[in-house]
Amino acid sequence: MTELRSILDEAAREGLISPEAGGRLLPFLIERGVAVAEAPVTTTAEPQQTWSDTETPRFVRGFHDVLITIGVIVAVVGLWGLAPLYAVPVAIIVLSEILVRRQRLALPAVSLTIALFCWTFLMMSRVFTPWTSEIGADLTQFVAGFPILLGVYYVRYRVPLSLALTIISTLALVLTLLLRLVQGLSGNPAFFVDHLGVLAAVAFVCALGLFATALYFDLGDRLRRTTRSDIAFWLHLGAAPALLYSAVSLLSFGESGRIFDLANMSARTPVVVATVAALMLIGLVIDRRAFVTSGLLSLGFAIFSVVRKGNATVDTYIFTTLLVVGAIVLIIGTGWMPLRRLVLRALPPAIANRLPPG
After folding, report:
1. Contact call for residues 59 and 106 (beta carbons, < 8 A)
2. Closest to 55 in 3D by CA, of 235, 275, 229
3. Which residue did the predictor score with more confidence, 73 or 22?
4. Beta carbons of 248 and 298 less than 8 angstroms apart
5. Which residue has the higher pLDDT, 135 or 224?
6. Do 164 and 238 contact (CB within 8 A), yes or no?
7. In sequence order, what DSSP letters do the residues of 302-323 get, joined into one string?
8. Is 224 in contact with 357 (CB distance < 8 Å)?
9. N or C: where does the chain have the smaller number of CB atoms within 10 Å of the terminal CB?
10. Where does residue 91 fall: left (phi above 0), alpha (psi -120 to 50 degrees), or beta otherwise?
11. Do residues 149 and 120 lie in contact, with contact meaning Cβ atoms separated by under 8 Å?
12. 136 vs 132, 176, 179, 190, 242, CA distance in Å?
């Protein structure tokens, strides 16, 4: 009965049923002999628990979701082209009330969240002019719109992606405030143009904060049974490139502030490869393939740059890059669990026991 009560409580937290309905359902189900099979207790300190190593985010539940999502995307894009910009959020809210709040469709919820993010970006770009070398009030106001709108959307519809984007945009807002503070103390409006290392260091600290937040949600649900795992999935998907780009900038700044400057990329290739390798190791430890995948684009640019510097033709270095990155993906993908077991065995038990099972 305790397990059945916890399932009904989780359903109430997800918004699938009301708490009052859960309280009435419990005796109803018990009277009719409904029970939940419990895992057999082993001799270890914890009972045996179901665990899947597929890292499946719960935003695709069937082709019905896919079909509805295609309709949402087509309709929103068509409305975007025909109607005024202010009509788009109205359509997003109406569709969210029907598809997210009432029908609890996961993939349409993701597409509508992304649509709201894109609309916010376009709207903030029209109101403010943040694209200048000076980090000023316009940039702060531009970024501040995202956590406000996405946060309200999460409070209403409880979409994990919307909370993840709210957290990411909040950290981006903190980053802009830190940059403005340092810039103001220096008295130089173009301070970060002249001091790329300071810019990279501040960005790296904020990237670490995003990664720590993702770990907070991840370790709070090590068996990945609740929406905390879905929130962590999206946060890791954003934390990996943020860590990669800021770390590479911090370790190889000087000639250019751009990471993927192909003219100078070959000199940075060892830094990129070492950083991607470190991220892959972290992904193995925390069992997040999404964390590893985010770094592969950068690795592809690095390999592309190395091959391009040789005497190979365009087709040769493009296909060589694809071949090498594809081979790395296949090796890591097929050997993920054996590699992870090796890594977990090398960790102290106090740390390994807090991570997802291997």
Report:
1. yes
2. 229
3. 73
4. yes
5. 224
6. yes
7. HHHHHHHTTT--HHHHHHHHHH
8. no
9. N
10. alpha
11. yes
12. 8, 9, 9, 11, 22
